[in-house]
């Protein structure tokens, strides 16, 4: 048998195989890099949340500087429409920016909705309210500052001090110190709605109860929440942190 007659088809077959594989099939010649989607084409909730929300609300929706999104009571209170609106437009005068392009952000309306829907789907619970009706998400009018001071002492003083400047105690066997809620620097960073949401929904990972449990058997009413927010807000100043102390 003529060996040359076998060698030619074998070489041709190898060449065709390499051509079919392309450069990525040849050692030392990696294929083309994966094409990253344009920022406005990202549609995965996890990616969008990580890039835009996790820095303030925590990797898993809790233990962040802002209100916990992994709080089913808060999600039931706010609802999808409010979460979508706030995510897109932001909250003026606070650290919550608007992420939609219309508000100066980088996300499309569709991407903002993906985030809102993902938060509700991932962390919501249809039974979070236990059949009870919380005070409404938004206040219907101004509160009474004087009554709010008394109601704060009754419902919130055990953890935050009757005057709102903080309290210490034991919780779960450990020593706990709650910071001041009437510090102007803190109040400059949170809106009245933010205060209201915290009071109604609580912050479960930090041991803060929701509107039903501050005083067992006496859930907070809409008016009481509104009054407490009014009293807290009355401690805001135009220039928090000023004037600086001077030394002669």
In words, what does this structure look like?
The chain has 248 residues and is mainly alpha-helical. The protein folds into 2 domains: 41-127, Cytochrome Bc1 Complex, Chain D, domain 2; 137-239, Cytochrome Bc1 Complex, Chain D, domain 2, CATH 1.10.760.10. The protein contains 10 helices and 2 strands; from the N terminus they run H-H-H-H-H-H-H-E-E-H-H-H. The protein has helices at 3-21, 45-52, 54-57, 72-89, 109-123, 145-155, 157-160, 184-187, 192-201, 222-233; strands spanning 167-171, 174-178. A two-stranded antiparallel sheet has the order 1-2. Helix 4 runs antiparallel to helix 5 and helix 9 (192-201) packs across helix 10 (222-233). The longest helix is centred in the first third of the chain and has 19 residues, at 3-21. It is elongated, with a radius of gyration of 28 Å. Residues 10-23 and 172-176 have low confidence and may be disordered.
